[in-house]
Amino acid sequence: MLKKVQENYSIQDLDEFISKGNFFPLYYFYGENDYLIDEYTKKIIDKNVEESLRSFNLVILDATNIKASELISIASAYPMNNQKKVVVVKQFKKLLGSENNIELLSRYVKNPLDSTILIFIGEKLDMRTTFAQQLKKSCIIVEFKNLYDNQMPEWIKKRIRHYNKTITDSAARLIADYVGNSMREIDSELEKICLFINDKDIIDVEDVSAVVGMSKSFNVFALQKAIGERKISDALFIMENMLNRGESPIGIIAILTKYFHKLWLIRSANLTSSGICDVFKMQKFAAEEYEKAARNFTVEEIETAIMQLTKADENLKTSSIDENLVMTLLIYSILKGKAIL
Predict the structure, then answer these.
(1) In terms of domains, do 33 and 92 share one?
(2) Domain of residue 332, residue span
(3) Are 143 and 124 spatial neighbours (Cβ–Cβ below 8 Å)?
(4) Same structural domain for residues 201 and 311?
(5) d(CA 280, CA 269)
(6) Fewer CB atoms inside 10 A, N or C side of the chain?
(7) Is the pTM above the cut of 0.85?
(8) For the segment 174-216, what is each residue's pLDDT rounded down to a tens digit?
(9) What does residue 150 show for φ and ψ, rounded to 5 degrees?
């Protein structure tokens, strides 16, 4: 059995362990980046359980539907064909609701079965508890954080190797600008692009524009552009299409709030496009758009927009006002520079 040598592990540590074929009996994965949690769980499964034996040696459980005693029984059973068995437990913290469950889990954690790889997936643990301290001694605990916007192009360049392709720096930045920092959505777009280019090895800006741009005609970034250019009819038209397509108004508000915070900094600091590139790590064309948008608003109008976005978010979460009405009034208030909500 491989032994732990430190308390905290990074994703880079996980990569190194997996590449060397080093696996541990216990893992605890948590954090906001559920895409990466799924990816690394899959990597561990793929390296340890043959496809033909997965009905025997792979068990995926939800903690809301099982008892701790049932989990221990499954984890303590030996795998088929003298191989490894992987047991994945989602929403693990649900099992920590009783002292009896904690006692049973503590016993297993102190002496896990070497032939079982048990992966707990859950929320951040309260490390002041006795169980969390015990888990820390014998478990590989990894937090999966979301990447920052300026880290996404490098991740895209790395991820595209999975499809046996490469991508230019400009194309990677363009995808990040179009899609944002949702790894799951970006991966979906990369798959579409790879199908589109067929046997072509290198993805360029034209490929991204043809595939991602086509499917993103009415997205929050197109909405940002229309707002930044103060084109009220375009902004309302894009907004209507987004809502009709089932886009989350709260999600739209979150991204627009982030957009206006950037505009506020640009306007307050009087940044040029080159300064915007340096501060926000943007592609030049995107920085130029931000510079133009910032010049289209006064600092007071930007501050009013941020307050109206906050008010719209509050209305959507706490009142029964029609969401289409809230979002329409929001666009008017931003582009008219007046508090309407």
Answers:
(1) yes
(2) 220-336
(3) yes
(4) no
(5) 13
(6) N
(7) no
(8) 888 778 778 988 998 899 888 888 888 999 888 887 777 655 5
(9) -75, -5
